Amino acid sequence: MDLGDDMSALVQVNEMSKSFHDNEVLSEISLSIEKGEFVSILGESGCGKSTLLNVIGGFEAPTSGRVLMDQVPIEKPTRRAIMLFQHYGLLPWRTVKKNVEFALEPTISSAAERTKRANEYIQLVGLEGSANQFPAELSGGMQQRVAIARALAIQPELILMDEPFAALDTFNRYYLQDELLRIQQQEQTTVALVTHDIDEAVYLSDRIIIMDRNPGRIKKTIAITLPRPRDRSHGDFHYFRKLIFDTFHFGRNELDSDYHI
Amino acid sequence: MRKILNVMIAFIVLIVTWQSVIWIGGYEEALLPSPFSVASGIVGMVISGTIFEHIAISLFRFFMGYGTAVIVAIVLGLILGRSLKLWGIVDPIVQVLRPVAPVAWTPFIVLWFGIGNMPAIVIIFIAAFFPVLLATVSAVKKVDYTYLKLAENLEVKQPALMYKVILPAAFPGIANGLHLAVGTAWIFLVAGEMVGAQSGLGYLIIDARNALDLDLVLAGIFFIGVLGLSIDKLLGLFESWVGKQWGFNR
């Protein structure tokens, strides 16, 4: 069991709890995320998985316990860990290119250099044809690619994704998941992704952290040992799917027994 | 085309009704001037050029008052909208001052600013200030939390946060206030120029009334109406231009 005492980890969470007005949302969470790793946090709604992501991102302070990045406590959001939002968080008054440049403006003072870097990452996500369009003119999938380009342009150590594909249709979701894996391998970025989609978690992750609710806590951690690229219809894929499904199902039975006649 | 036709029909109906009332009622020119005498009054003022001097000075006062009100109200609104504690204190004061007609301040305005251009400018300022302030505060309060979270994550600091994120995000709401204020402020232009001014469209009306030239009073009203409409349309063009720059496509 991973107790988050790994010295080489990028992120370490040690016995962290989080309460909102005496309501314990997260209880005694311990985990670590290695550099370059793709970790999914999987759970039903209300298990506190988004809160956990917010704590790792520095948007919320833990009530107790420690959250470290490279051995240093995370106190506020920084450019080292960039959050991607479910509704993309693009600025509607800026074009695609200007949205990506927005992320570079605080650190790169030369406009020419910003444009150059923005173009590189717009190309990386395959949107060079839409660089001068406004977000409202793009489909949801394209908007999320802009958000990914903007996050990557900063060259962060960690990308936090809060159900980034939940608002997309199945085909777009599959396509973007492949894109994300390709880009993640190319850029060697560490990714922590929150999802309630079991397939998505199995397809993308090196490791899945399964959460339970009331209060939110880690139920199980599963390493997905399948080789890449993964095949969604392969038997091994279904093995992990079933493993996770049983984990949830087991929880259901426990709960149901209270109501059984 | 349809629009132009509608405008023409409206004016013909108005003028015909107006002239009929005079014929049927047999009113004297001193009570209700005829469309013809008002028209000749308008033409006379255009030919002599006096009307343009009045229009120029009125527009100057209007834009001075409106412009400063918009700048001050937007800056204050951005600050107050971001600090809800401060707004909690300022809001009751604004609520008490807002329903007061700007002209009610006239005695103080004359005492503090004298006569001439200032009373009209100050009255227009007061008239425009509150709608813009309230619209800005409410627009800033409603800025999507995601944008603020994003800015925090990207370590966007003030003042960049204000002009790169909050101002554009709040702009559609602020634009509503600008529109509302332009109408209110123009209405109070006449009132403002009735206080100690010696020129301008409001003064023109007072002056014509004192001379019992009712046709010139109506001519002045005509110019005020047409200019008010033009300014409103001009603001509409400005808004859609900004909207286009910022991709709002309204």
Structure report:
The complex is a heterodimer of chains A (261) and B (250). By secondary structure, chain A is an alpha/beta fold. Chain A has helices at residues 49-57, 96-104, 111-124, 140-153, 170-187, 198-204, 235-256; strands spanning 11-20, 23-33, 38-42, 64-69, 72-73, 81-84, 158-162, 190-195, 207-212, 217-223. Chain A folds into two domains: 1-78 and 158-164 and 189-233, Rossmann fold (3-Layer(aba) Sandwich); 81-155, no CATH class. Chain A has seven helices and ten strands. In chain A, α2 (96-104) runs parallel beside α4 (140-153) and α4 (140-153) runs parallel beside α5 (170-187). The longest helix of chain A is centred in the last third of the chain and has 22 residues, at 235-256. Chain A is globular, with a radius of gyration of 19 Å. Mean pLDDT of chain A is 86; it is low at 255-261. Chain B has two domains: 1-32; 37-245, MetI-like fold (Orthogonal Bundle). In chain B, α2 (35-48) crosses α10, α8 (160-193) packs antiparallel against α10 and α9 packs antiparallel against α10 (214-245). In chain B, 34% of the residues are buried. The chains are: A alpha/beta (261), B mainly alpha (250).
Averaged pLDDT of chain B: 90
Q: Strand-and-helix sequence of chain A, N→C?
A: EEEHEEEHHHEHEHEEH
Class from helix and strand fractions of chain B: mainly alpha
CATH architecture annotation name of the largest domain in chain B? Orthogonal Bundle
Spatial gap, N to C terminus of chain B:
22 Å
At CATH level 3, the topology of the largest domain in chain A is Rossmann fold
CATH H-level name of the largest domain in chain A... which superfamily? Answer: P-loop containing nucleotide triphosphate hydrolases
What level of helicity do the residues of chain B show? Answer: over 70%
CA gyration radius of chain A, whole angstroms: 19 Å
User: Major sheet of chain A: size, sense and barrel closure?
Assistant: 6 strands, mixed
The CATH class label of the largest domain in chain A is: Alpha Beta
CATH class annotation of the largest domain in chain B = Mainly Alpha
